[in-house]
Design brief:
484 residues, mainly alpha
């Protein structure tokens, strides 16, 4: 998915030349993947509960493989659009299942870092896409963009096969009554046999199974209608707060404008004064490097300083970067062609280019990875797969709206005005997370629901009362100790 996003930003330049597409077709091509991802994300929850987390990951990769092959062989715009739609369904599946699997397989102490790994892989894919654009741009026009898009089939094939070398989620195994297999996985995760047994008992309790239940006895199953009813029709107060928090972080994720920058960075760099196509593509490679490096920083920090501080600090950087980017692009636009403003334009060009990178860095160090980590860990086990699928659907919908309207938006209110708008929306996102999203750092998945049971004000206080502090952790040294 990351490779597709990165490579499409450059491929669109060549597709426009080869297939003679207009701006409307370019916007549709950019956003249709996310519209089709809605289909994948909304069905992936049920599929993963039925077939397992690993099989769902493999299924997602297989679908994306088919879409990449179609795009790489597309003789015309219609076939290219169909291939992008097929790939979009695979993206929807993958974006839902990857963070769920990572959260369920990880220990509480490393869950933030491991849940962020899908985002680092997406960023690495974006970087590889930008590099592919730069290298394959030298091919003849008819082959260049097709090679760029078709190469996305290779990592998909590797994932579809390689995922079966990984263990299944112990929480899904418990839900199926396969407790002995779940214990084998937990022994690999935990330091001692006693810890594995304790975690197995906690997972059984969360799944609605008695601690002494015999192997082969599945957890009580909620029908799809039952899950939707508990999520949306008659949620308990904690579930209602979880739903608002999990869906809210996905809603605001792309309203920061990150997809506009990643997909349309060549246009932004052109607007900022970089004229050569090779220089534009080289600059986009720099964006990919920045995104990858700062997500690596986020992985090091998310389990050390917590979700809230990282997310809010990230938004502070995003707001400042977007405001400066909007200012720089506005000055450039108004000084173009006016000789007496060339000095102002030079500093504005430098400011605009620099703030594209600071914006990507700020997003990647917090909002990007924390969104996926947070939304995958807050839902209780019985609701996790389908609750996460709804969050991903909202994420893809907002992504599609931004990517399919950005060109029209900046033509209507100027490109600088578009980024001022994103800055304002980021301020709203900061207020939302500050007031409604409590800290979940270091708490076992089976205890996270309790974090949301103390009212809306718990988030603003920075956490929850001491009664629900992380089991076995002392405030003095942050180290887990056995409890009597």
């Amino acid at each position: 998915m990351g490779y597709d996003t990165g490579v499409m930003s450059g491929a669109m330049l060549f597709i426009k030349d080869d297939l003679k597409t207009n701006d409307t077709q370019v916007q549709v091509l950019a956003g249709i993947l996310n519209i089709c991802a809605l289909v994948g994300s909304l069905t992936a929850g049920r599929v993963s509960d039925w077939a397992g987390r690993r099989r769902t990951i493999s299924f997602a990769a297989t679908i994306f493989f088919a879409g990449s092959v179609l795009m790489g062989l597309a003789p015309n715009f219609a076939t290219l659009l169909v291939g992008r739609c097929v790939a979009g369904v695979g993206v929807g599946y993958a974006l839902m299942i990857a963070p769920v699997y990572a959260a369920e397989i990880a220990s509480a102490e490393s869950r933030g870092a491991l849940s962020s790994l899908p985002d680092i892989c997406i960023s690495l894919g974006i970087l590889l896409g930008y590099v592919a654009n730069f290298l394959l741009a030298k091919l003849p026009l008819v082959y260049g963009w097709r090679a760029m898009l078709g190469l996305g089939a290779l990592p998909s094939a590797a994932l579809a096969i390689g995922v079966f070398a990984m263990p299944e989620s112990p929480r899904w195994l418990v839900m199926q009554g396969r407790t002995e297999e779940a214990l084998v996985v937990l022994r690999r995760e935990c330091g001692t046999e006693d810890e594995a047994q304790v975690r197995l008992a906690e997972i059984k309790a969360a799944a609605g199974l008695p601690a002494d239940s015999a192997p082969g006895v599945p957890a009580p199953k909620s029908s799809g209608k039952g899950v939707w009813k508990e999520l949306f029709l008659h949620p308990t107060p904690p579930v209602r707060r979880i739903l608002v928090a999990a869906l809210g972080v996905h809603f605001f994720n792309h309203l920061t404008g990150i997809e506009a920058v990643l997909l349309y960075s060549p246009r932004i760099f052109k607007a900022a004064g970089i004229a050569s196509r090779n220089e534009v593509l080289a600059a986009t490679v720099g964006v990919g490097v920045t995104k990858t490096v700062f997500i690596l920083v986020a992985i090091l920090l998310v389990d050390r300083i917590g979700r809230r501080r990282l997310y809010l600090a990230s938004l502070a950087g995003i707001i400042a970067s977007l405001a400066c980017l909007g200012l720089g692009l506005t000055v450039i636009e108004h000084s173009t062609g006016a000789s007496d403003h060339h000095g102002a334009a030079r500093w504005a060009v430098a400011l605009s280019i620099a703030t594209v990178f600071t914006f990507v860095a700020s997003f990647s160090v917090g909002v990007g990875p924390v969104t996926w980590t947070y939304s995958s860990e807050v839902f209780p086990l019985r609701l996790r797969a389908q609750g996460t699928s709804v969050g991903v659907a909202i994420n893809r919908l907002i992504n599609a709206i931004v990517s399919m309207t950005f060109v029209s938006l900046y033509k209507a209110i100027t490109i600088g005005g578009a980024f001022f708008l994103f800055a304002g929306l980021s301020v709203v996102a900061a207020a939302f997370f500050y007031f409604l999203c409590p800290e979940t750092q270091g708490r076992p998945l089976e205890e996270v629901e309790e974090v949301f049971s103390h009212g809306w004000c718990a988030a603003r206080r920075g956490g929850v009362p001491p009664a629900v502090e992380m089991r076995g952790t002392t405030a003095a040294d942050g180290k887990t100790k056995a409890q009597p």
